[in-house]
Amino acid sequence: MFPFNFEWAWDIAHVVFFGGFWYAIGILGAGMTFCILKAAYDTMKGNGASDH
Amino acid sequence: MKVDRRSFLGLGLGAVAGIAVSPVGIKLTDDSSIWTQNWPWTPVPVDGEVSYESSVCSLCPGSCGISVRKIGDRPVKIEGLAGHPINDGGACLHGIAGLQYLYDPSRVKTPLKKNGNTFEAISWEDAISLVAAKLADIRNSNAPERLAGIMDKDLGSVSALFKRFFNTFGSPNIYTLPTLESNLQATAATVHGKGQTIAFDLENADFVLSFGAGLIEGWGSPVNGFKANASRKERHAKLYQIEPRLSNTAANADKWIPVKPGTEADLALAMCAVILKKKLFDSKAVANFKGGVNKLNALLQKTYAPSKMAETTGVKSSDIDTIATLFAKAKMPVAVFGKGRGDGAQSLKELVAVHTLNCLVGNINKKGGAFVQPETAYLEFPAESMDSIATDGLTKAKAGRYAHQVFEKINAASQPVVEALFVYNANPCYTLHGADNIKKALGKIPFVVSFSSFLDETAKQADIILPIHTFVERLEDVPSCAGLAKSVVGLTKPVSPPIFDTKNPGDAIILIAKALEGDIAQSFEWDSYDDCLESVTPGIWDDLSEEGVAVISEGIPTGSVAVNVSFLADNPATVQAQGDDSLTLIPIDNMRLPSAGTAASPFAVKTVSDTILKGTDSVVEINPLTARGLEDRGYATLTTPMGTARVRVNLNEGMMPGVIGMVEGLGHDFDNKYVSNKGTNINDLIGPVIESGSGLDAAFGIKAKISKA
Amino acid sequence: MDSALIPEGAKRCSFPKFAIGIAIVGAVLLWGVYAMFLCWFKGLNQTNMNDYYGFALWIWADLAVIAVGGGAFFTGLLKYIFKVDELKNIINFAVIIGFICYSSALLILAIDIGQPLRGWFIFWHANVHSMLTEVAFCLSCYFAVLTIEFIPNILENRQVNRVPFFHHLAHNMHGVMAIFAATGAFLSFFHQGSLGGVAGVMFGRPFAVREGLLIWPWTFFLFTWSAAAFGPCFTLLVAKITETITGKKLVKDNVVHLLAKISGWMITTYIIAKIIDTIYWATVTIPSLGFKLSHFYTNNSFYGYWILITEVVLCGVVPGALLIIKSTRENPTLRLIAIVLGVIGVCLNRWVMVLQIMAVPVMSFDTWALYIPSWQEIATTILPVAYGIILIAITYRYLPVFPQEQELNSIEPATEAE
Amino acid sequence: MKQENNKAHKFGMVIDLDKCTGCGSCMVSCMSENNVPFKEDESNKKDSITWMRVYKITNGKSFPDTEIVYLPRPCQHCGGKGDHGHSPCVSVCPATATDYGYDTGIVSQIYTRCFGCRYCMGACPYHARYFNWWDPKWPEGMENYLSPNVSPRMRGVVEKCSFCYHRYQAARDKAYVDGRDDIEEQEYQTACTTACPAGAIVFGDLNNPAHAVHQIVKPDPHPDPRNKHIVGKSRNPNVFRLLERLGTNPKVYYLSEREWVRKAGDNYLEGEWDEIKNHHGSSSHD
């Protein structure tokens, strides 16, 4: 899972597989972080629960 | 501060988030997996220094050399001993699993005394004095012959000590259960004269004609048999196997000749007839035959001609002719007898008839043939000291020729025939035919002393149980026997300290003798069995103690051997199966189940096929042609004149039509869930059939019927 | 009493009625939970699995719920990537079903493995060559995606939405949902596929093994395709069941027809591929390993050709045809038959690809192995069903799952149920 | 991983089915060597842990033409397609709990890492893998015979024959102490091999021409021209492997002079056997 796990090898299989995995995790993490931060910002800026 | 709902919610979420990002979760997850890797209820074997000790296995007559691997004090594995003259590294599954006997928690752990229906633990001192007191009573009533004894075999110093005890006590009533060795001796006695035994040079024979001998099913010395059989491939030696069932031996043989059960003697005689008629015999050998060769020949040609025996035996007369011819013309032929393991019920007619084939082709004491040699004698006991009760007692007649006759007599008599019984290393309540009757007889004996490591069927009937060491804990001389071409004595050594409060059986009998005082005690003056063994084996002790094995004789025996054919010439009757039903139930010997009194080990039971034992049911083998209406693996009721059993059915093309096969060695009923209460003991379903003349129980099977249950 | 939580303008049954319904299903759930704890504490000896049946009922259930849960990713893909806008009216429901299916799948896996406390080794000590590793990674990640897709719907609950932060969060998440959906589709493609790959790579099992493209056997693509094809059937089926139980129309016909049509074409193309695959396997793959087709369908008391014909023809070709033909598609009864057959078909396919593989003897002297699950296995397999019913009931009651509900039921509310 | 010598070992086995008597010594020797547990009822062979299992095979003919043969089946230690080490089980294990030793050819099983998904069992056509459905329990006192060389397995993990790998380690350690580069043929023998009373099992390094296994098997150095996945096919006409056509490339070979026995080792379409039976590796067709 991580390069410090002893099964890890810098071969094509690991790079492709974990490349995809960390890429997906990255998108999800970044997306959620963005949403949460933006929501916090929106909350502080406006205070209405009306606009949609 | 007032905690409102919102701040409570916030605090809660904050706490959850805090814990989630803290290392607590990771730590707990990691710890829990480490816990699963070290569950306290999964044992961790203790490490220690590795050592190997050589010894000899005495679970069966095979007498194989073993190497015991130990970690510190504790034996952890039994393996075959490389270079040993009998087994050279190989080992059978029972020997390998031997430590399961050693550590078995259901062993008899201390001397036990029967109290009503249960046993109570007593000390060795109490046990010995109870036995001695009872025996003293018997002697005081001047009827020492009313002490009887049953042993598994009549070989080695422990058996000799028991016999010595009976002699000095004054009882002639000591018996052994039928073994291959006793059957070989009986055959030798009939054909060649007393005091001899027969062996087969299977390692060299180029044509082995086996009359049902399970050469790879535990016959003789099993590992040696496996080795000899395996070497056939390189030696291009042939094996023809004659028996009703495609046993492993038959399957491994070059040819399987199915024969109707119980007609092996007739088939052997038909082959003798062919050899005589075609003059294929060794004329030099036959010229020295005594007891009426011409009479025998006339009988054979008249009654046992192949054409007449084809119907009886189920073997075509042309096949009889061909096989007899092949046998006679082979360079080093040998005919082997002793169906199955060769122990248990056997007919002397059959044994002698087959052996006569050996005599006819003149292979006695020739390479690859049958060896006739004196019984192994290496023990030198000092003279017994006999008092008058003993000398008188020994003049009395034995209660029976063989053990089963004694039991019959006990069951028939209204007066006690036997006041006390010693049972050593034997389990007649399980191994003898009509096991229920044996139990009944034991119940009628007022005082039964069992020398046993396990609470087996017979020990359960005892009044006193003296727990003895297993072969891993004791010192003992183990002479080879059972048809082995070479004669060696091995030394079983105590590779493990006693696990429980047990003793060497030799020590137990010495203690009893000493407690009886007088002449008996004088005849047992050794400090211990270990001392006794050293002193009674002066010729071989050095070899035994240093090498672990002493070779008494090997190679081809020299000297001529007398052959007397009068037994056959008198045309003894062929034993018939008891009952009237159309099918015949026969026992199957299977290497993975010992047929002797000891139950299989848990490992051995685990290897048993589900076509032999399924759940707690015995599975019987039957040809699909015979099994009309029965389903494969379905339940059936098997009925013989002796009893009924619920079994499962295995439709097997390797079974002769008209025959039902049931494995021996199942159906033990004692307290060990891994090996007991599984299947049916076939000896409950078969009754003894005494062969007239020999007095042997020769029940090769019993008539039976089977129906869907 | 819980009216404050119920979406504005929506009619729901009385709370006691709802509570009783939940209690009944909850009892079944508890039965399953009991069996689950038995399996965890006493071990898998509670099941009737054995060394021939290492994969059994659970793995089938696992594959089946993931297959029918495929409606979520495929509907999401169509909605957010291909901009099929009508589908916004069913996407919430598809996501909830997906969430239920995937959480159930993960739960089943947690029960199925012999060492649940070490289950995370599949991530930590991952063997990237194993299809199951791919399954585990994509499954967990996609479950995260489903959770993310589900969250905005939860945040739209009347009370929750009043909290400004949650309101904004829901709004923002809607804004970037296409990215999440794309990631979800990517992950789904691989885990649906790798579930198919689980069987297809077993080159020791002639019944399972398939040739393929690069490292992926054909079953990889067939599984993805079939999940995309039959997943919407299941979404429609559950929507239909929900409509029946609530007695309300919840989704407009044009949405249903559209999804059914897409499903129909997917099924049809899938089944053509499946037939080609089966023929190739039967005539090229297995003969090269020494097997005849009949080996896999005869000499046992259960698996016959019937299972192949049922899966491919009755539950594949037939629903495909029914759904691509306009007249049958728009006939409610025939459409229902088609989606039911479709759901059965995909479940049967997963059954065959798990259990029949285990049953078929491979060594010439081996025998067929059949097995009957223990009650613990059955209870734990029903557990997700009970859990799903409860979750749908709760979400339906408290969340605005169906955007068209008010429009379709504005005049006169029909009889209510949970 | 550093190897003792440059050439990798490829440990394998030949079992002479004409010599095998079905006696069960190998099974019990294996059980006692490897701390295999036992339970009350072992007659359901589908949940009975027997790393070495002896199958009884018949020729299917009626009485009296029936024949039987016993076929001991340890783990086949497959090399996988092309013998590249991707055995059916190793390639599917998600947690790297079973691994292929490129220096020995042995397929290992790491019990503490296995989390019991049983995918490997499904992938193995030989049923050589066993799951611990129960906690291993020894009757009181019997745990005293457990060997410290092999750790008892906990409930919930898969186990299988390891070719007595601990014996290899011990032999290697001894060689190291003695200052030798490599072990001798007789120094590393599996428990089943040494126990077999019929001498039916021969074990050694298939890569070493001096070893008996190599001499009996005469493994073909070239891939099978009929199926490139098959490597190491025996050039001995009496030697075969189980399910060789699947391309699993087992390292356990079987020897029999009986044609029906050799045929029972794999699956053949009608008439195919007669075509294939005289094909013994690439060289026989040169």
Describe the structure in your own words.
- The complex is a heterotetramer of chains A (52), B (709), C (418) and D (286).
- Chain A is mainly α and 52 residues long.
- Chain A has one helix at 12-45.
- Chain A is rod-shaped and about 50 Å long.
- The N and C termini of chain A lie far apart (41 Å).
- In chain A, 12% of the residues are buried.
- The mean pLDDT of chain A is 81.
- Chain B has 709 residues and is of the alpha/beta class.
- Chain B folds into four domains: 5-37; 123-174 and 402-468 and 503-537, 3-Layer(aba) Sandwich (Rossmann fold); 180-374, Dimethylsulfoxide Reductase, domain 2, CATH 3.40.228; 576-708, Barwin-like endoglucanases (Beta Barrel).
- Chain B has 25 helices and 26 strands.
- In chain B, the strands form six sheets. Chain B has a seven-stranded mixed β-sheet, covered by helices on one side. A six-stranded mixed β-barrel of chain B has the order 20-25-22-24-23-26. In chain B, strands 11-10-9-12 form a four-stranded parallel β-sheet.
- The N and C termini of chain B lie far apart (81 Å).
- Chain C has one domain (3-408): Formate dehydrogenase/DMSO reductase domain (Formate dehydrogenase/DMSO reductase fold).
- In chain C, α1 (15-42) packs antiparallel against α13 (375-398), α3 crosses α7 (164-200) and α8 packs antiparallel against α9 (253-288).
- The two termini of chain C are 14 Å apart.
- Chain D has seven helices and ten strands.
- In chain D, β4 (98-100) and β5 form a beta hairpin.
- Chain D has a single domain (11-285), classed as Alpha-Beta Plaits (2-Layer Sandwich), CATH 3.30.70.20.
- With 286 residues, chain D is of the alpha+beta class.
- A four-stranded mixed β-sheet of chain D has the order 8-1-10-9. A two-stranded antiparallel ribbon of chain D has the order 2-3. A two-stranded antiparallel sheet of chain D has the order 4-5.
- Chains in contact: A-C, B-C, B-D, C-D.
- At the B-D interface, β3, α4, α8, α9 and α25 of B face α1, β2, β3 and α4 of D.
